[in-house]
Amino acid sequence: MRxxxxxxxxxxxxxxxxxxxxxxxxxxxxxxDLIEGWSLLDSFYMTVITVSTVGLxxxxxxxxxxxxxxxxxxxxxVGVMAYCLTRxxxxxxxxxxxxxxxxxxxTKKIAEMKNHAIICGYGRTGTHVVSELLSAKQPFVVIEExxxxxxxxxxxxIPHIIGDATEEETLSQANICKADSLxxxxxxxxxxxxxxxxxxxxxxxxxxxxxxxxxxNARKFKKAGAKRVVSPISSGASQIxxxxxxPSIVDLVELVTQDKSIALQVFEYTIDEKSEMLxxxxxxxxxxxxxxxxxxxxxxxxxxxxFDPGPxxxxxxxxxxxAIRQPENG
Length: 330
Fold this sequence. Notes:
This protein has 330 residues and is of the alpha/beta class.
C-alpha cells in the first residue's frame, strides 16, 4: 500500500511534466504561426529544436518579434523540460529502489513463514482461496508465473513469488518444507499432477490439495500424493443434489462457514505428544470444559472419521478433533 501511494505521487508529477511539455509545444507552434505566418509543420519543428536547445539552423529568418518570442520559449521550455526529466528520473529511481527493497522484505518474510499455505496459481480458484485466507487471517504465499495476474498481489502487498510452481527451486523459495499445506490450482490437470508429484516428493508430510478439471483424474492425484482432490464439477453437482434432497443442512453449513455475523466457529484440534487428552476418552478428557466446544467428529490417524463420536471414544496420538464453539469475542 505504501509503495502504491509513492508510485501515485511520482506518476502525478510525471503527468504534470508531460502535460507541461505538450502545452509548451502547442504554445510555440501557435506562436510562430501567428507571429511569423509559418505553416504548422514549420512552426512545430521550430518549437521542437528551440525547446530542445539542439542548436540547429532556424527554419526561416526570424523577425524581431519572432526572436523575442523564441527567447521566451527557450526560457519557459527548458524549465518545463528540466522539470519533466527530473520527475522521470525520480520516478524510475524510486520505482527501482522500491522494487528491490520490497522484494528483499518479501523474500525475508516468506523465508520466516511456518505452518503456512502455498497457493500455486492465482487464477479463478486461487483468487477465491486467497480471499478466504485473508478473511481468516491465515498465513500464506502465492506462486504465480504470469506477472499480469500477479499485479493485484503486488498492489496489496500479499506474499508472493513470480515463478513456475512446478520447479523445485520455486517451491523451496516458498519454504515448502515448513508449510502446512499446498493448493495446486494451475491451469491444467497435467501441470497440477506434476506439481503434486514434485511437492509430495520434496516434503512427505505436506498436505497437498489439488484442483482437477476432469473428475476421472482424481485417482491419479491420490496416487501422486494429494491428500485432498477437489473437482469443481463434482462439487457443484453434489451441492445441487444436496440442495434438492437436504436443503436445510446445506443452508446451515453455509450459514456457519460464510456468514461472518454468526457467532459459531468450526475448528480442529490435533492430539500430539504434549496434549493432556492423549490416551483419554472424550468423557475423561472433558473436552467441553477444556476447549469450550462440542466435538462433532474425530478424524483418526488412519484416515477414518467418526462422526458424532460417543463419550467412550478414545483419543490417540495423531487424532484430530473437529469441534464447534462460540468465538471468544462472540
